[in-house]
Write a structure and sequence with these properties.
Elements lengths: L14 H5 L30 H14 L16
């Protein structure tokens, strides 16, 4: 669990590796899992004024488009 909380992405366990831990077996649905796109860390260390960070964050939120995932038959979990 501690390896998932490491801030340094080079030392932190990947999501793929974390999903292999026994604590997540009951929550996994391997047929629905896909590899995530690598995170772009280039902006993280930029020395920007606060207003520019706010603008950047707001723009990121507005432009976010979640990937479309094809609905599949539920496993009896419909409401």
């Amino acid at each position: 669990m501690e390896k998932m909380l490491v801030l340094d992405p080079d030392r932190r366990v990947s999501a793929t590796m974390a999903l292999e831990l026994s604590m997540f077996f009951e929550f996994r649905e391997p047929e629905e899992e896909m590899e995530a796109m690598p995170y772009d860390h280039s902006i993280d260390n930029a020395d920007l004024p606060l207003e520019q960070w706010k603008r950047h964050t707001f723009t990121e939120i507005l432009s976010f488009q979640p990937p479309f995932i094809e609905p599949r038959d539920s496993k009896g979990t419909s409401v």
